[in-house]
Amino acid sequence: MTPAVTDERTTLSAPTNRFGQPIGRPLADWSARAYPQRVTLHGRYCRLEPLQPDRHASALYGAYAKAPDDRDWTYLAVGPFDDEISYRRHAESAAASTDPLHFAVINLASGLAVGTLALMRIDPTNGVIEVGSVAFSPELQRTPASTEAQYLLMKYVFDTLGYRRYEWKCDNLNAPSRKAAVRLGFRYEGTFRQAVVYKERSRDTAWFSIIDSEWSALAAAFDAWLSPQNFDAQCAQRLCLTAIRAQQAATRRAGAPVTVRPLAASRTV
């Protein structure tokens, strides 16, 4: 995976100061952005609610307990949890935090909480924020709701709050997380060596990001992928998210309106 780099063409096209040095593009109208709030975000398949232990902890623990083993907790800073009481203590601590700011993912079909994720490393001054602490239960993994949960949070950050940069970081050895980041449209930027110590081991951290200039195209792809027409009766996708992005990008390059032509159903979500 090749990191995003600033190449010679970018340097040559940059504005210069009075000394002839290349500098970043001016942002004269920039101002600090608002801090994210404990809002409820509504989607077609799921809803994001501020984490509330009294409402969510029991359902979340039950959903996580359906996993056949504890591998989903390997690369998270917390867990696994021995019982519902210990998970509830964690949920109470998480719910009291404002950074990270935790949300529960509610499955609209069941009305139950099936996972959590958070906004963290919140930097309103520079318009930078990270999504992390993603703990999706087996009931949420590889479903349309899991993608929509990520999309709803991105949309809140870019469209409502007006942030410039949205980050994803993970253990460099966490291949599923790296793959998920790329699928969602994040660009790999590099790996910070020995960046974190957690669970009595060292972590090299892989960095990914989406910036505001990329958001419009990514949002169009999410909207197309999440459309009911993109799924068959068994909820199998007809066209994968990366294929939709590629198709829409080709259409834009050709100067034509963006349309989506579904392919044969695939069960990989």
Automatic annotation (TrEMBL):
It comes from the Bacteria. Pfam families: Acetyltransf_3. GO terms for molecular function: protein N-terminal-serine acetyltransferase activity; protein-N-terminal-alanine acetyltransferase activity. InterPro entries: Acyl_CoA_acyltransferase, GNAT_dom, Ribosomal_N-acetyltransferase. Signal peptide: none annotated. Residues 1-20 are annotated as: Disordered. The keyword Transferase applies. PROSITE patterns: GNAT. It is an enzyme of class 2 (transferase). Residues 1-10 have a biased composition (Basic and acidic residues). Residues 46-204 form the N-acetyltransferase domain. Keywords: Acyltransferase, Transferase. Its EC number is 2.3.1.-. The keyword Acyltransferase applies. PANTHER family: FAMILY ACETYLTRANSFERASE, PUTATIVE (AFU_ORTHOLOGUE AFUA_7G00850)-RELATED (PTHR43441:SF2), RIBOSOMAL-PROTEIN-SERINE ACETYLTRANSFERASE (PTHR43441). This is Ribosomal-protein-serine acetyltransferase. It comes from Mycetohabitans rhizoxinica (strain DSM 19002 / CIP 109453 / HKI 454).
